[in-house]
Amino acid sequence: MSITLNDITGTGGIAPGAGEILSIRGGRPLSGRVSVKGAKNLVTKAMVAALLGNSASTLRDVPDISDVAVVRSLLEVHGVRVVEGDEPGSLLMDPRDVESAHMEEIDAYAGSSRIPILFCGPLLHRLGEAFIPDLGGCRIGDRPIDFHLDALRKFGAVVEKLPSGIRLSAPHGLHGANIHLPYPSVGATEQVLLTAVRADGQTELKNAAIEPEIMDLIAVLQKMGAIISYEPNRVILIEGVKELKGYDHRAIFDRNEAASWAAAALATDGEIYVEGARQQEMLTFLNVVRRMNGDFEVHEDGITFRRGTGAMRGVTVETDVHPGFMTDWQQPLIVALTQAEGQSIVHETVYENRFGFTDALVKMGADIIVHPHGLQDGPRRVPRRQLEQAAVINGSTHLTGADIVVPDLRGGYSHVIAALTATGESTVRNIGIIRRGYEKLLPKLSGLGADFDVIG
Ligand code: EPZ
């Protein structure tokens, strides 16, 4: 049975197309319990890894989000059988009948996600060729793929750029390579891992990304039979093997969703228990919560977030690769910082255009100034990068409802939280984008006491 995007809603039954416009009445604290499932930025990659196996894989704690639906459909057009697994929220993927897909079938998914680029290595190993459509993903910068293509060429792939995407072939198979990434790119690291595990010989990857989601992908590949060692100083060594088998894996929790709900509790002065959140993978985020006079309590199976006693305080934060403050955390955090007393500075060092969402916050009354070329300011934990931007937030400010349009995934979530923080009514449009990464967003908001109607 082929699952199409229309079958996956992620909003408790409201199909995409409907449920695109919310009318939100803000000014009430969000309080209660939400559960976060597997990380969007691991689950989608582990699904691609299933292509490499010679038997079926089971992935558990798969969130019901449209990014998963896109990857599921792309696997199916390549002949992978994908069905519900042996427990709710699990997928069984059987890659034994993988075959080339027709270009127009793949093209249908052009622009819908960044994940297709990670099909390159597995398809080259299985079929000797691959066609990858133009990518999608959030408009938060150029999002080039030069690191990916350079790595694939080093493995022996031939890359041909077409008007609608790229075609790859491996006339002499794929062999191990020595790759030194110019920047610890998450996607490029995953590209190397998914290609090296079945390449002929050893691969050394230097300046690798080491996010928890990357380490979880390494765990998945090791379960399949891969030999991967994680050395000091961001070096990963992979010994290529001939065969990999299927895996059974429960995905790591979604740190980005957990941080988003934490920021919602701080912004609306509520109290939210995030079930599934774990302290170890969120240490840097928790330090910022404490520095801004927020409060949190770590439990066996989750973390409770609330404000501390007295006013929240402004902080200076620089986004960075792991173990730094994740770039995906800054958008919801900034909403909370509009409610903190004093000045906050957020340096965005990973993407070159990730403050677009602040326009809507300013429209609601926030005092935020974006410096497109960053700030030459005082001592920093993170060295400046040439593409850096900075946002200066002065608080606390009273937000009032407005008519806003969601620009991207994390910015979109932040718009919803800002509308729930503001007094009065807001109309938030284009919320379908948020379904890409937040499972059952609307039922979760209702469960926390949010007052809204779906009006379009
Ligand atoms: C992943 O994107 C995540 N997406 C992003 O989350 C996350 O923000 C990002 O990693 C950083 O943690 C998924 O996993 C699907 P990068 P990715 O390659 O892999 C530059 C979300 O909201 N770069 O680490 O695309 C790039 O332009 C999303 O869930 C090149 O220059 O990120 C950026 O400036 C948003 N050339 C920097 O590296 C390349 O070939 C980091 O990008 C690749 C990347």
SSE inventory with pairings:
Layout: E1 21-26, E2 31-35, H1 40-49, E3 57-60, H2 66-77, E4 81-84, E5 91-94, H3 103-107, H4 120-127, E6 129-133, H5 146-154, E7 158-162, E8 165-169, E9 178-180, H6 186-196, E10 202-206, H7 212-224, E11 227-231, E12 235-239, E13 248-250, H8 255-268, E14 271-275, H9 283-291, E15 294-299, E16 302-307, E17 316-318, H10 330-337, E18 342-348, H11 358-363, E19 367-371, E20 389-395, E21 403-405, H12 409-421, E22 424-429, H13 441-447, E23 451-454
Parallel strand pairs: 2-14, 3-13, 9-10, 17-18, 21-22
Antiparallel strand pairs: 1-22, 1-23, 3-5, 4-5, 6-8, 7-8, 10-12, 11-12, 14-16, 15-16, 18-20, 19-20
Residues 40-41, 114, 138, 141-148, 183, 185-188, 209, 256, 327-328, 350-351, 409-410, 437 line the site of ligand EPZ.
